[in-house]
TrEMBL record:
The lineage of its organism: Bacteria, Bacillati, Actinomycetota, Actinomycetes, Kitasatosporales. Keywords: Hydrolase. This is PP2C family protein-serine/threonine phosphatase. Its EC number is 3.1.3.16. It comes from Streptomyces massasporeus. Residues 174-387 form the PPM-type phosphatase domain. The keyword Secreted does not apply. It comes from the Bacteria. GO terms for molecular function: protein serine/threonine phosphatase activity.
Length: 390
């Protein structure tokens, strides 16, 4: 047991002391030396959540791996180690690389099978978790991991929007969150943001206005105004008022944006809501899906010094909340039929067994099928919140 403990400590130390761009080299060395690994590869999920991209020096020698029909994708989707048996008494272990529920990718390790693999699989899974934390921190100092996530070049507007986001999923004892934006490589103004404390969860769903850089600049201004107000300890209605003033002061009503703001009490499930526009919320409760309407108020920045009123609602353990922008419920089929709440309710029902992190991508695939073509006219956003409560 002492030897096993020492080799895990060696692996952890190697990752924590490695240069930001050399994390993969560090984990390769220590897994080869301490765990008799034959090969070690790191794959990160691309922005569209369709493939796992290899992390390597350009030009890459490995091919991307599909998320939905590959052994590595199985580990990524289930968030559990998946082991393949290879020829020559080797096995290949695919291990989720995740930070507090935010699914980054998969660490793939080929090593001797049998008792050796069984004896170290748990430690390898923990090393993959440590690697995830180190990748998350390293992204402040190197572009390597951000570059590895790209199948294609991002537009500048998309680059700005992705840098603004908190992550794509989050897990805490009280809830699970998952979110996705499309088209991933050319998004404009739609956005989501969240922040949690010991007692509260703040969640913001934004339906942006305009296209390209202008849409991204507008959203960046509003989100940072909200963060500034939230970090100053202001209530959710005062946060909305401050962001409204910031946007109006800059655009004088020419541009504005819609937002649904929610503040959850983690202990009681009480929710304080400000509905400033068009994002919608649907709730799956005890097998039934229904839209939860709120009193619509003016979008942020439309007029000077708008006062916002808080409404209250509640969530129960087992509830699933799905939030969508108009790029989802308003998308038209080739025949001109809007996707609408009925189709969205069916999609929520059909994905009820999926974890929250996988629901947004699954619903967006349904929307693409309804649209009948891969290229949308507007960006689309889906956020899924599974509420467990305390």
């Amino acid at each position: 047991m002492t030897t096993i403990t020492n080799r895990f400590v060696a692996a952890e130390r190697a990752l924590r002391t490695a240069a930001p761009h050399q994390l993969l080299d560090a984990v390769r060395r220590v897994l080869t030396d301490q765990y008799a690994a034959d090969s070690v590869e790191l794959f990160l999920a691309d922005y569209g959540l369709t493939v796992l991209q290899p992390v390597s020096v350009l030009p890459r020698t490995l091919q991307p791996v599909a998320v939905h029909n590959s052994p590595a994708g199985r580990a990524f989707g289930a968030q559990e180690p998946h082991v393949e048996t290879l020829s020559g008494e080797l096995v290949r272990a695919h291990l989720p690389v995740t930070v507090r529920g935010d699914r980054l990718g998969v660490l793939t390790v080929t090593l001797p099978g049998g008792e050796h693999a069984e004896g170290c699989l748990g430690e390898l899974a923990e090393i993959a978790e440590v690697l995830g934390h180190e990748v998350f921190v390293a992204e402040r100092d190197t572009d390597l991991y951000l570059q590895a996530r790209r199948r294609d070049r991002l537009t500048l507007a998309a680059e700005m929007q992705w840098q603004l986001l908190p992550g794509r999923s989050c897990v805490r004892p009280e809830y699970e969150l998952g979110a996705q934006l499309e088209p991933a490589y050319a998004i404009f103004g739609d956005n989501f943001d969240w922040s949690a404390s010991a007692d509260r969860l703040s969640l913001y769903v934004t339906n942006g206005m305009g296209e390209g850089i202008e849409a991204s600049l507008l959203t960046n201004l509003a989100i940072n105004a909200l963060r500034n107000a939230r970090r100053a300890g202001l209530s959710i209605d005062d946060q909305a008022a401050l962001a409204d003033q910031a946007v109006y002061a800059h655009y004088r009503g020419r541009c504005y944006l819609s937002m649904l703001m929610l503040d959850f009490d983690l202990a009681t499930g009480r929710v304080r809501v400000v509905d400033a526009g068009s994002p919608r919320m649907l709730r799956l409760r005890r097998g039934g899906v229904e839209r939860v309407p709120f009193d619509a108020q003016l979008p942020l920045g439309m007029f000077e010094e708008t006062d916002y009123v808080v409404q209250e609602s509640d969530v129960e353990p087992g509830d699933r909340l799905v939030f969508v922008s108009d790029g989802v419920y308003g998308v038209a089929s080739p025949g001109g039929e809007a996707y609408g709440d009925a189709a969205l309710a069916r999609a929520i029902q059909s994905t009820r067994l999926l974890p929250a992190a996988e629901v947004p991508r699954a619903i967006l695939r349904e929307v693409t099928g309804h649209r009948g073509r891969s290229t949308p006219d507007d960006d689309a956003l889906v956020v899924c919140l599974d509420w467990r409560g305390r």
